[in-house]
Amino acid sequence: DLEFLKWRATILRRLFPTTTLRCGLYEASGWYSGSELYKESYHLIWHDLIVRKEQAVLIRQASIEFFEQESQKPNHPLMFMLNKAKGYNDYNTWETIFDATTTRPKVGLRLPFCDKRSRLEDRW
Predict the structure, then answer these.
(1) Whole-angstrom Cα distance, residue 67 to residue 11?
(2) Contact at 8 Å (CB) between 78 and 67?
(3) Rounded to two decimals, what is the model's pTM?
(4) Residue 60: is its pLDDT beyond 60?
């Protein structure tokens, strides 16, 4: 189902009306020992969209606000999508679905097909 992708592209088109939006989708799911639960993660790579970290924070916030506003509308597809996500875990909100760690300088993003690095003490 590409419903989420459709709405994600909608907000990005509003923010970047002249940019071509091509998207790659990567799945990175598995056991998350930090919360002791199975986690499904999907990473969208927008090939023609390059932003600075300050822009990334604003894009994330605009996305959350858009998704929250639209999911308040009765019978809106995003309302059903959010309800389904919350059915799996109440922790699933637009705030957590659009992961803030992607905008943090010490965390950032990793390349597709690369595992997340293990947390180590700062020994460098």
Answers:
(1) 9
(2) yes
(3) 0.81
(4) yes
